[in-house]
Every structure is written in C-alpha cells, then in structure tokens.
Design brief:
There is one protein chain. With 404 residues, the chain is of the alpha/beta class. The longest helix is centred in the middle third of the chain and has 20 residues. The protein starts with 9 loop residues before the first helix and ends with a strand.
Length: 404
C-alpha cells in the first residue's frame, strides 16, 4: 500500500516497547511457550479469518515479522440470543475454522486478540440482558481460545444505544477483573474533534463504572479526513478529551490512547498511503501512545490494475503497494525491524479464480446474504434491497466480495 520510509531505530523502539508492558505467555501447538508483550497486542492489525478472502497469516508472519493478529468480529447470533458467534452465523462453541487459524499463528510463535462488535450486525451488548450476561458470553470466547487480549469495537448500531454501551463497558470491566493480565482495548469512531457525541458518552460511561482499559482507540477515517495531518490533529484533540474526562495529565492520556486506521481507500473515498501511515506511526511513538493498528490485513494487498483508485474493497487497498506493506508499520510499532528481503518458505499461494454468481438484476429482490455478480465482482447483500446498483454507494446495501 505504501513505500516504507525509515524504520524506528532498533534500540529506541525496543526501549519504547518495553516501557509499561506485561509479558504474556501463549502455548503453541507443540506445547512450547512464546512470550508476547502487550506491545504486540497493541500492534495487531485486524484480520477477518472467515470472510473477505482471508490471507494466510503464516505467509504474512514470514514476510514481515508480524506476530499478532486482531481477529474480527464476534457478534450475537443473527436470529437473536446471548451466545457468541463469528459474524453472526458461526457459533464460537463449535468453531474449528478460526481455531485452526489461531493454532497456525501460535505454532509460529505468535498470538491473537479477538475483536467484538465492528460496524453493523447485532452486538451481544444489544441482546444480552445485562453486563454480567454480556461478560459471560465473551468469557466463552476468552476461555475457548485461551485469549490474552480482547478488543471492544463499539460502533453502529449499538454505538447509539445507551443500554447496549452500558452492557459492553460493564462486560469489559468484568472480563478485566476475572482475567488478570488481559489486554483490553476499546475502539470507537473518530472525528476531526477527536470523537463525536456518542464517543464522549461512551467515555463518560466508562468513567461512571470506574473502568480503565489499556487504551481507548479512535478510527480517524470515514469522517472527512484528508491524510495523516488530519489524523494526527484528531489524535491530539482526542487526547484533550481523555484528559478532561478522566482528569489525566497529557502523558497519562497518551499512554491510554490508540490509533486504528484504514489502509488505502476508505469507505467514504479518503486515501491513506504508506507515507500517511509512517507519519501517524512517528506521532504515535513520539507521544508514547499505547496502540497502533489498522483495518485490515485482508485489504493489505494491491487490487487488480483496473480497480486501483476506483472504489473501496474488502479484499484489497485500491492504492499501489506491495503485499503486506501496511503490516510492516505494525511491526515497527511493536519494536521490531521488518525483514528487508522476502523469505523463501511459505510463499503466498496463487488464489484460485472465484466463479461469478448470478448477474445482478434491477428487478430482483435481494435479502441479507444473497449474492450476485456485477462489474466483474461478486457482491453480498447486507440487508433487503431492490434496484440499488452494487458499489454505487459507499454506504449502500452491497458488500464487495472481490473479483470473479
């Protein structure tokens, strides 16, 4: 997605990574142990393991030195209820597919965090009776996968639901208390002012419950942003919000602040290049921020030439890049110099061409998860729709599943 600029000095990066971190131990498939610092969980980019043409995490690890992945997203069941699922459809209790991904990462000395929520879908905070019930649902995820880190991605539609946010913040506090050493991040939309009214209400809810996560991260994209300067300005403003809300000084606020970016072309047509990521990385490290991550590894590869710059995709960045360019910034934030040469083991396999679904029709009625092809890509309906052209609107009813 971008050309790498100068890396952090190794000594400075390691010193920064060591400051205020807690070593956590994971057990890989062979029974050996690998210690990861909180800095790695703070650097973990998002990866959808079941959707959006998931890349091979082992290949990314070999190519970049990345050790941690933020797996997305755990939701309530599409039909309702208070049990955790992947994407609303695959029950965590019976999962083997995501477990296989986790085993692969841990066998190579890495680890994962799991993200709950995200944009859209039904969240457990909306369907569970209270904070205790919400926490019990998430505890199933923590226990099944032996997690040392979890991310609360609080967005639409629960973002605007006071009761749901109360349940989520309460659940996060309970998990933190019941799982000593658990790394907890809270991610929420960003604005030019730092975060909007609902984000500020979420912070006030955390304050009222006496809950302090490892960090509160904002997503400074999809809100009229224009490159790194607008993002660092939003991070500065968010720091002031953290200070005024919790009574922290500036340094304490930065130590509890995180950045979650979007690589390449955002949903609203903004562009964030490799140079933008380097600028924000420099800001984050110089201010001793706690987290630097991005959405997503599924997008951390170049589109076919015809797609570059044309539209937002869930499977590529729409900017010129080498595969895993953006992941290398996460590696730098964790305090490791990414490899400069591409290793020979575990090459990225050539993807098998995807067949096209039945062509989209302006007269047909589509319901959630129906698929159709249009413009050389497959599309999946997010909700009921008719006569809405796939890709015509950034916030429309269609999810791009990639070229076919």
């Amino acid at each position: 997605m971008r050309t790498l600029r100068a890396c952090l000095g190794a000594a400075a990066a390691v010193a920064l990574a060591a400051a205020g971190t807690t070593a956590l131990v994971t057990t890989d498939a062979s029974g050996a142990t690998t210690a990861l610092s909180n800095r790695w969980y703070a650097a973990a980019p998002y990866l959808m393991p079941l959707d959006n043409d998931p890349p091979d995490p082992a290949a990314i690890m070999d190519a970049t030195g990345l050790k941690a992945f933020q797996l997305a997203f755990v939701l309530a069941p599409n039909g309702g209820g208070c049990s955790p699922t992947w994407g609303g459809t695959a029950a965590v209790s019976s999962d083997t597919a995501v477990q296989s991904v986790i085993d692969t990462v841990r066998a190579k000395g890495g680890d994962v965090s799991v993200s709950i929520g995200g944009y859209g879908g039904t969240k457990l905070g909306q369907t569970c009776a209270d904070a205790s019930a919400t926490a019990a649902a998430y505890q199933q995820v923590v226990t099944k996968y032996g997690l040392h880190a979890i991310d609360f991605d609080l967005e639409e539609p629960e973002y605007e639901n006071t009761a749901a946010i109360r349940n989520e913040i309460g659940a996060a506090k309970i998990l933190q208390q019941n799982n000593p050493g658990l790394y907890v991040s809270v991610t929420t939309p960003g604005t030019a002012d730092g975060t909007g009214w609902f984000g500020k209400q979420m912070l006030l809810e955390a304050k009222s419950q006496g809950f302090t996560p490892n960090n509160f991260s904002i997503m400074p994209f999809d809100g009229g942003f224009n490159g790194a300067a607008s993002q660092t300005a939003a991070l500065t403003n968010f720091n002031s919000i953290l200070q005024s809300t919790f009574g922290w000084d500036q340094a304490t606020a930065y130590a509890h602040e995180g950045f979650s970016g979007m690589n390449g072309r955002s949903d609203s047509g903004e562009y964030f290049s490799q140079a933008d990521f380097q600028t924000v990385l420099d800001y984050a490290t110089s201010h001793h921020m706690d987290r630097f991550t991005f959405w997503s590894l599924n997008r951390d590869r170049q589109c076919t030439p015809a797609d570059n710059g044309g539209r937002t995709s869930g499977t590529c960045s729409s900017v010129a890049q080498n595969s895993w360019d953006f992941a290398r910034y996460s590696v730098q934030f964790a305090g490791v110099t990414p490899p400069t040469t591409t290793p020979t083991p575990t090459p990225t396999p050539t993807p098998t061409p995807t067949s096209c679904k039945t062509a989209w029709s302006a007269t047909a009625v589509y319901v959630k998860d129906d698929e159709a092809s249009y413009g050389g890509h497959n599309w999946k309906a997010k909700w009921w729709t008719q006569n809405e052209v796939p890709g015509a609107s950034e916030w429309g009813p269609w999810l791009d599943e990639g070229a076919c």
